[in-house]
Design goal:
This protein has about 280 residues and is α/β, with parallel strands linked by helices. Strands 1-2-3-4-5-6-7-10 form an 8-stranded parallel β-barrel, surrounded by 7 helices. A two-stranded antiparallel sheet has the order 8-9. Helix 4 links the parallel strand 4 and strand 5. The protein is globular. Bound molecules: zinc ion.
């Protein structure tokens, strides 16, 4: 079990957690709430001048933890796979421009082909973009997604699979992201966290909660403490593995998006200090 969090120095919030806000609102409100860690979702970078974005982040002393997200490599269509390589290349440029050291990869899946085939294409895609990532100094984190997404969002569904792929690619620039929402149920989780930690492959740690019952498989994530995940226990494993990065709050929630975001941010801080 992890020790209690006593301050916000390791708190990072994903901009999508506060979906109603644009990037400026996220930066200004996080900063005045005493939160310096930010993971930027690419939707808030659309039509933005990235030099201005970088200035905004620097002026508020923000620490950009990751860019979310790249990936979506597999497709039965060659043209789609090429499009995805271009999009990931663009993501690398965006990450470098805003100072994000890591891109989180939601790897993708195409239900018209086998999971094995999709995984081959994921690996191929990562290897293709790797030289550009290296040149830009941006790392790539393979994020395993809960098996309920295996048909369309990710053919990588356990940390073991993510670890294996990262180890096969064998680059300092490829690792994994551990998200409690996707992995809390896995009987091998402690072992697999140890494995990526000891390889220096653990690049990111995402927290939220699993609501019981869950009413929507995409946008009904809980705030820490709302659901059934033993987050403290998992954070303990992550920290014991040598990870000392940010705890990233990533909550997609129609319920919370419909509330006052300033009050919600205060709730996030309380849940972070008491339930994470
Ligand atoms: Zn995540």
């Amino acid at each position: 079990m992890a020790t209690k969090l006593t301050n916000l120095s390791k708190l990072c919030v994903h901009t999508l957690t506060n979906k109603p806000w644009d990037l400026r609102q996220c930066v200004e409100n996080y900063s005045s709430a005493g939160i310096q860690g930010i993971t930027i979702w690419r939707n808030v970078l659309e039509n933005q001048n990235l030099n201005e974005v970088k200035k905004l982040l620097d002026n508020h002393n923000m620490d950009v933890v990751s860019l979310a997200r790249g990936g979506f490599f597999p497709s039965t269509e060659k043209g789609e796979r090429e499009k995805s390589i271009n999009d990931n290349t663009f993501a690398i440029e965006q990450a470098a421009a805003v100072g994000a050291p890591v891109i989180v990869l939601v790897c993708g899946a195409d239900g018209k082909q086998s999971l094995e085939k999709s995984r081959d294409q994921i690996k191929e895609g990562i290897i293709k973009i790797l030289p550009k990532a290296k040149a830009a100094g941006v790392k790539l984190a393979i994020e395993p997604l809960h098996p309920m997404y295996a048909g369309d969002r990710s053919a990588i569904n356990t940390l073991a699979q993510a670890n294996e792929m990262a180890e096969e690619i064998n680059s300092d620039f490829v690792g994994v992201a551990v998200d409690v929402y996707h992995l809390w149920w896995d009987i091998n989780l402690e072992k697999e966290i140890k494995r990526c930690g000891s390889n220096n492959n653990l690049f990111a740690f995402h927290v939220c909660d699993w609501n019981v019952p869950t009413t929507d498989f995409l946008n009904d994530r809980g705030l820490m403490g709302d659901g059934c995940i033993n987050i403290k226990k998992i954070r303990g494993w992550v920290e014991n593995s040598g990870f000392n990065g940010y705890n990233e709050v990533e909550i997609f929630s129609d319920k919370y998006w419909g509330t006052d975001q300033i009050e919600y941010l205060e709730k996030i801080k309380r849940a972070y200090l008491n339930k994470t």
